[in-house]
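Journal club prep — side note

Before the paper discussion, L.F. wants everyone to see what a predicted structure for a comparable chain looks like in C-alpha cell form. Sequence:
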Amino acid sequence: MPKCILIGAPIDSGQKRAGCLMGPAAYRVAGIAHEIGAEGHGIEDWGDLALSDLPDVSCPNPVVHDLAETVAWARLLMDKVDDALSEGGFPIILGGDHSLALGSAAGAAAYAARQNRPLFLLWLDAHSDFHTPLTTTSGNLHGTPLAYIAGREGFDAFPPFPLAVPAHRICMFGIRSVDPAEQAAMQERDIAINDMRVIDERGLVAPLREFLDRVRAESGMLHVSLDVDFLDPSIAPAVGTTVPGGATFREAHLVMELLHESGLVTSLDLVELNPFLDDRGMTARLMVDLVGSLMGKKVFDRPTRSK
C-alpha cells in the first residue's frame, strides 16, 4: 500500500452546529498516525489546511449559508487530494463536516481522469447527501456532496466536477434518512441504495462484495467517504446528525476488513466528528480503530480492555 498522507480539513461551514473543526485534532490525539504505522504503512502528516481569500460567489437559494467558505474549502481540498495521489500517496482527509467531500472526491476524480481510470465511490453514511444548493431547505451544504459528485445541476458556484461519477459506480451503504426530493432524484439515476433494510435482509458482505467486484472489473479507483453517523449513536455519539439504527461495532469493522482485503481503496474521508459531543473520546477512538482495520488490523490483534 502507498504511504498514507493525512490532510486536516477543519471545516464547520457545511452545517450550523459548531465543533467539527476540532475533528482533525481529535483524530491525531486518538492516535491515528500510530494506528497506521503499527500496520507497517508509511505516513506523512500535511497538517491542517487553512483558507486564505474567499471567492465572490452567490446562490439564488436564500437559505444557503457559508457558500464562499465551502467553495473555498472545496477548491483547496481538490488540489491537495490530487497532489497527494499524484505523489503516489493514499490521502486520508480528517474532517470536518461532510462538505469536505465536495473537494476530496473532486481531487480524486481529477487524478483518476488523468490516469484514464474510472472513479468509484463508497458512501458510508446515514444520509444520502443528494440535495443541491438549489434544493436544500436547511441551507446546510454538507447535505450536497453526493449530488455534486453524481453530476446534478445547481453547483454553478463550485469548480466544475472533473468527471461526474455515474450511478453504477456509486454505492450508498447504511442509508436510513433520505428526504423525498433526494429519493426522487436518486431513483432517476438508479443509484444503488443499500439502506439498513437491505443490510438487515442480505447482510453486509454480499452487497459490498458485489460493488467491489465492479470496481475490480473496471480497474477502478475507490474513494471511501466515512461519516460518523454511519455508526449507531450508541457507539459513536460525537455527531450532530445522529440517526438510530446504524452500523454496530462488528459490522463497521467487517466493512473495513473487507475493504482492506480488496486492496481497492485509494482515498478516504473521515467526516462529521464533533469532539464537543463525544464521550471521553470514544467516537474518535472508534473511528481510528476502523482506520486500523482498513490498514490491515485483524480482530484477533485487538487487546482485551479492562472491565
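L.F.'s comment for the group: The beta strands are 4-9, 43-48, 90-95, 119-124, 170-175, 192-195, 221-227, 265-271. Keep this in mind when we get to the figures.
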